[in-house]
Design brief:
With about 80 residues, the chain is of the alpha+beta class. The protein has one domain. Helix content is about 20%, strand content about 40%. The strands form two sheets. The chain has a four-stranded antiparallel beta sheet, with helices on one face. The protein has a two-stranded antiparallel sheet with strand order 3-4. A hairpin with a 2-residue loop joins strand 3 and strand 4. It is elongated.
Length: about 80
C-alpha cells in the first residue's frame, strides 16, 4: 500500500487517513475533540482540513545536511582502512 504526499505551505505531509468532515459532526456542530482523539488513535501528529475531508497526516521534516567535499579520494579511502 502506498501513502500519498500532500503539500501545504511549503511543507510535506504523509497522509495516513482521510475522513469526511461529516463523520465528526454532532447535532450540526463540529466536534474537534473527536478529531483530536482520532488523530491520536491513528498515530498522526497533525490534521489538515480540506473543504470536504480531514486529512490525518505525519509531518515530513525537512532534512538539514552539510555538503562534504572530498579533494583526494585515494587519500580518504586509505585513511578509513
Amino acid at each position: 500500500m502506498f501513502s500519498k504526499l500532500y503539500y501545504n505551505n511549503d511543507k510535506a505531509y504523509l497522509i495516513n487517513r482521510s475522513m469526511p468532515i461529516s463523520k465528526f459532526e454532532r447535532s450540526g456542530k463540529l466536534n474537534m475533540d473527536m478529531v483530536k482523539k482520532c488523530r491520536d488513535w491513528i498515530g498522526c501528529d497533525h490534521v489538515l482540513k480540506t473543504q470536504t475531508h480531514f486529512l490525518f497526516v505525519e509531518t515530513i521534516e525537512e532534512v538539514e545536511f552539510e555538503e562534504v567535499i572530498v579533494k583526494d579520494v585515494k587519500k580518504t579511502l586509505k585513511s578509513t582502512k
